[in-house]
Design a protein that fits this description.
The structure holds two protein chains of two kinds.
Chain A (H helix, E strand, L loop, with lengths): L1 H19 L1 H39 L3 E6 L4 H10 L6 H10 L3 E10 L3 E2 L8 E5 L1 H6 L4 E4 L4 H5 L4 E4 L1 H8 L8 E4 L2 E9 L3 H6 L14 E5 H7 L20 E6 L5 H15 L6 E4 L1 H44 L1 H9 L4 H38 L7 H27 L3 H6 L2
Parallel strand pairs in A: 4-9, 6-8
Antiparallel strand pairs in A: 1-10, 1-11, 2-4, 2-10, 3-7, 5-8, 6-9, 7-8
Chain B lengths: L6 E12 L2 E13 L4 E5 L6 H8 L7 E6 L2 E2 L5 H11 E4 L11 H10 L5 H14 L15 H12 L6 E5 L7 H16 L3 E5 L3 H4 L4 E6 L2 E7 L10 H13 L7
Parallel strand pairs in B: 3-8, 3-9, 6-7, 7-8
Antiparallel strand pairs in B: 1-2, 1-4, 4-5, 9-10
Classes of the chains: A alpha+beta, B alpha/beta.
The structure holds adenosine-5'-triphosphate and magnesium ion (MG).
The site of adenosine-5'-triphosphate (ATP) has 11 residues of chain B, from strand 2 and helix 1.
Chain lengths: ~425, ~260
């Protein structure tokens, strides 16, 4: 009872002291405000990136790797073609499936550069040729109708499964199932509409850029139909514009476990290189490795931010020490009066420590708000995902209180050790 | 009532190290003040009066000699115990009032209670009664700058009484007041003394000293003479003093009546 009343009194004295010098206190807080804001923003950006990457890996599975077509230009393209490589192909996919026991699933994709049209509506959409493995690996589910099947692929059927956004944009309120959409010159029957899975769509944002496409805008057709219906040959100087090269743009490969990722990467690279006549026209990507890589980048970023934050906090702490020393001198007589009325050295020490801590804690609070503002701005301006965790707030609050205690200690001790008589006589 | 003397000092020496050598502000002072006495300390400037008062009030430590308060020696006490003693048993009144300018009158009077651990509500209630007793009951939330000298000194006296002390130590309490207000303060002291409060007062003014029962003359840090006042002035209690009397009879002495 006595202790709480006493503690409350110390706080009220401190608040009183700060309120008397609002501007001075605010200026003193600036260092702490910037330091804490930097800490909060740094942790929020780091955590946001981590979450985005994790979600992405989660969406496709941690035990997957990607084989992606690499851009081949000009002479190299002519040279590769002469050597007999056609870039990534369905045959490559079949080969990977058959040749490696640890390869559980291979999902090849071919992107088609065509619009999707229904009743003269042409919404923004990406046409992708896939086989059922793609549905499996990306954990897609139908909302209406069905997904693509192996027999769709085997028969190169002109059928399509629509992403939810595309379905809405094409058909408005009509039921899409059974209707035909036009892709290029061909009619494709809509057999299914995908469920709008937030996870899968979000996975494409931020973090590791494995796929930047918005899944909800995808239109899936059997990969065989895609290759058959759109074999147009254009004279092109690079593989991106030459549809005969890299008929398959990307393959998702699932292996039996994360420990197999690295050996699989090496084995696949070697085997595909042989099939492509030694031409490095593809790359094998391990998302988990990218996560590690981004973590390392993140660590460097964190180190820089931590440095800025600690410098800022140091400057803030010195500011607090400075202002507290001034305050102690200014209130020398008050200290003498309090001592004469029964305040012990400890009481005086406590009073100034509490005041210093209040200043830095208030700065910390403003800094936390500033951190929210910064991470929100980063999110809006750069599109990075940010996430402020409770832990970072606790950390920031703790750090700011600690700064007050540490840098308030010397002035408080100075106040406590003052000779009461001298203090009373001070003008 | 306590049989032991309120204050007993023996061979008090207080020296200050200075550039020119050692300055002995107190050069062996022995003084006994019985409980309930009202003593004036007089002497020229620099004779060590304030130093003596501070030593007796446990605000300063003598270089040599012993002090007993209510029969208890204080030499061995650490800062915390000394502060507690100062808080509960001693009330200081200064020439320049020494109120905190940025705190209200209620908060000023409640200040000693803070260090006695009283809750905010209890402090305010008690400060209200004390201020009422010194005739400032309506000005709880005013600030010291809004007061006249006499009023400020009455607030300071109310503050000195906050924890019901046994001894009041006043260093030239009327030094900044005109003779009329000075007499008012003396009337208050007289009433308090009649209630059993022991008072030691430093003063330059012989007229003021005549309100006390005994005069101790100090010179160069030593006691020159120690004489009773033949016919002390006992002013009739005003309305205020009567209220004070009533109030303090509830308080008792030697610590807050919790
Ligand atoms: N902290 C100190 N350091 C050095 N000398 C001091 C200190 N305090 C007091 N003195 C000296 O001790 C002597 C006594 O001082 P003190 O204040 O007790 O005198 P006083 O009798 O109260 O005088 P006055 O009537 O002017 O108030 C003086 O010479 C003073 O200069
Ligand atoms: Mg003096």
């Amino acid at each position: 009872m006595i202790r709480t009343a006493y503690a409350a009194q110390l706080v009220s004295i401190g608040v009183h002291g700060i309120a008397l010098h609002k501007l001075r206190s605010l200026l003193t807080m600036l260092g702490i405000i910037f330091g804490v804001a930097a800490v909060i923003a740094m942790l929020a950006i780091g955590e946001g990136a981590r979450q985005a990457t994790l979600r992405q890996i989660e969406a496709y599975g941690a035990d997957t790797l990607y084989v992606r077509a690499a851009k081949v230009i000009g002479d190299q393209l002519r040279d590769a073609k002469r050597a007999g490589s056609a870039g990534l192909s369905l045959a490559d996919a079949a080969h990977l499936r058959a040749a490696f026991p640890f390869v559980l699933d291979v999902a090849p994709q071919a992107t088609v550069d065509e619009k999707v049209v229904y009743a003269s509506r042409e919404p923004k959409a990406t046409v992708v040729g896939i086989d059922p493995a793609y549905h499996r690996l990306t954990k897609q589910l139908p909302d209406a109708g069905r997904l693509l099947t192996q027999s769709d692929v085997d028969g190169a059927r002109r059928v399509a499964v629509l992403g939810p956004s595309v379905a809405r944009a094409l058909f408005l309120h009509e039921p899409p199932l059974g209707r035909a959409v036009r892709i290029g010159a061909d009619q494709f029957e809509v057999v299914g509409v995908l469920a709008g899975r937030a996870g899968a769509a979000k996975a494409a944002e931020g973090g590791v850029q494995i796929r930047t496409r918005e899944v909800a805008r995808d239109v899936y057709i059997p990969i065989t139909a895609a290759l058959e219906a759109f074999p147009r040959i254009r004279d092109a100087a690079d593989s991106e514009k030459d549809p005969t090269y890299h008929r398959v743009r990307e393959m998702i490969v699932r292996v039996g476990g994360t420990e197999l990722l690295e050996p699989a990467r090496r084995a696949l690279t070697k085997s595909l290189a042989r099939r492509h006549r030694g031409r490095q026209d593809f790359e094998v990507i391990v998302p988990l490795e990218i996560l590690e890589q981004s973590r390392k980048t993140q660590d460097i970023f964190n180190l820089v931010m931590a440095l800025i934050a600690s410098l800022s906090l140091l400057v803030g702490g010195i500011g607090i020490m400075n202002i507290m020393l001034a305050s102690v001198t200014e209130r020398t007589r008050e200290i003498g009066i309090r001592r004469s009325l029964g305040a012990s050295q400890q009481d005086i020490m406590g009073q100034f420590l509490v005041e210093a801590t209040l200043i830095s804690a208030a700065g910390g609070l403003l800094g936390i708000l500033g951190g929210f503002a910064i991470s929100q701005s980063v999110h809006l301006a750069l599109g990075w995902e940010t996430r402020i965790t409770p832990l970072s707030i606790v950390l920031a609050a703790g750090v700011s209180c600690a700064v007050g205690l540490i840098f308030g200690f010397f002035p408080a001790r100075h106040a406590a050790r003052m000779d009461p008589i001298t203090a009373l006589r001070y003008e | 009532m306590n049989r032991a003397p309120a204050v007993r000092a023996q061979g008090l020496v207080r020296s200050f190290e200075q550039a020119g050598g050692t300055l002995r502000a107190l050069a062996g002072v022995s003084l006994t003040v019985e409980a309930g006495e009202f003593v004036s300390i007089m002497g020229p400037s620099g004779s060590g009066k304030s130093t003596l008062l501070y030593c007796l009030g446990c605000l300063d430590r003598p270089t040599a000699g012993t002090i007993e308060l209510g029969g208890e020696p204080v030499e061995e006490l650490d800062d915390r115990s000394l502060s507690a003693l100062r808080n509960r048993r001693i009330g200081f009144v200064f020439q320049s009032f020494n109120l905190l300018p940025t705190s209200t009158l209620a908060d000023n009077v409640g200040l000693p209670m803070v260090y006695a651990g009283l809750s905010r509500a209890r402090r305010r209630e008690r400060a209200a009664r004390l201020l009422e007793a010194v005739g400032l009951g309506k000005r709880l939330d005013d600030y010291p700058t809004q007061l006249s000298g006499g009023q400020a000194q009455r607030v300071a006296i109310a503050r000195a009484l906050a924890n019901g002390p046994a001894v009041l130590l006043a260093d030239e309490p009327t030094g900044n007041l005109d003779s009329h207000t000075g007499r008012e303060v003396m009337r208050l002291f007289g009433e308090l003394n009649r209630l059993g409060l022991t008072i030691l007062m430093v003063t330059h003014d012989p007229q003021i000293a005549r309100h006390s029962g005994r005069i101790v003359r100090v010179m160069d840090g030593a006691i020159l003479e120690d004489v009773p006042v033949p016919d002390p002035i006992r002013e009739e209690g005003s309305e205020e003093s009567k209220r004070l009397l009533e109030l303090l009879s509830h308080f008792g002495s030697g610590g807050p009546s919790e």
